[in-house]
Design a protein that fits this description.
By secondary structure, this protein is an alpha+beta fold. Helices cover 21% and strands 26% of the residues. It has six helices and 14 strands. The strands form three sheets. It has a ten-stranded antiparallel sheet. Strand 9 and strand 10 form a beta hairpin. The longest helix is centred in the middle third of the chain and has 15 residues. It is globular, with a radius of gyration of 19 Å. The two termini are 34 Å apart.
Length: 288
């Protein structure tokens, strides 16, 4: 949660007021704003400093096995803007993100995250070792993964979803305490680019995807809990969405044959605090 003061949210407030949404409801919605980091391949220095890269050589400590999923990006945590998220991230080292935008992630995670502590001895790995069967379709998808330096910018994020399923219930309801949530989500979509810059990779903040009704983090928490019950992922996994948080989103919609897809890396809050990044659960939204 971040202060929604000053002129930053003025376009949002003005549009919400023009649509007749009461001021108290607007401010209550803005109180849910979260800080995040937007990362992009932008060439100009105005977006922010270089903090990592899409693709490039895959460097891992010798005791970490070859990844089961394609390499997406590496982020230098020490280079991120100060206090740019509300996540309990390590102060340094690199986060390496892996994912295959395929299916909906049910049954098993579709990616993973590795934290390489600062000063670790690393060796270069084969970026195609994950595709042991040399599947032509997956090779073609991987060849379209973005490549190049990533610039970062501290930004803000508001919810994109409008429904939740209360604990112990089976029917969805609109977000409690926010009777105008549907209208406010539309206002955010209409005014987002006047308030915050976007990037295909985001750390922290609220999860987004092509079609949003429920919070993708809530959906991922449910999928993870089911995977543990089915024996396809090691537990424990809380079924309470409040115990989970978005680590990062990657809009992979520019990939050929995966248009409109989004990868969500989510983690339980206690696992993040304990630096257990092997406990990240990865889901994919794709509407073929």
């Amino acid at each position: 949660m971040i202060p929604a003061t000053g002129d930053r949210f003025r376009p949002f407030r003005e549009e919400a007021t023009a649509q007749g949404i009461p001021a108290d409801d607007v401010e209550r919605w803005l109180a849910t704003a979260r800080p995040c980091v937007a990362l992009t391949l932008a060439d100009d220095d105005e977006f922010g400093p270089v903090v990592g890269r899409f693709g490039g050589p895959l460097l891992l400590p010798a005791d970490i096995p070859d990844p089961e999923h394609p390499f997406v990006a590496s982020v230098d945590l020490a280079a991120l803007p100060a206090d740019a998220t509300d996540l309990s991230l390590p102060p340094d080292g690199h986060l390496l993100f892996f994912a295959l935008p395929d299916g909906d992630g049910r049954g098993r995670p579709r990616g993973n995250v590795v934290h390489v502590p600062a000063g670790s001895a690393v060796t270069q790995r084969d970026t195609r070792s994950w595709n042991s069967r040399n599947d032509d379709e997956y090779n073609a998808i991987f060849e379209g993964y973005p490549q190049g330096p990533l610039r970062a910018r501290a930004e803000v994020s508001l919810p994109y979803h409008t429904f939740v399923i209360p604990p112990g219930e089976r029917e969805a309801v609109t977000l409690p305490g926010h009777p105008f949530c549907s209208e406010l989500v539309e206002v955010w979509e209409d005014t987002h680019d006047s308030v915050a810059r976007r990037g295909p990779l985001q750390i922290g903040g609220y999860a987004n995807e092509e079609v949003v009704e429920f919070d993708p983090v809530d959906v991922a928490a449910s999928i993870a809990a089911d995977a543990v019950r089915e024996g396809s992922w090691d537990g424990p996994a809380s079924a309470d969405p409040a115990d989970w948080v978005l680590l990062a989103d990657w809009y992979a919609g520019s990939l050929r044959k995966r248009e409109g897809s989004t990868v969500h890396w989510v983690i339980q809050r206690e696992d993040l605090a304990a630096r257990r990044f092997e406990r990240v659960f990865t889901t994919v939204f794709w509407n073929p």
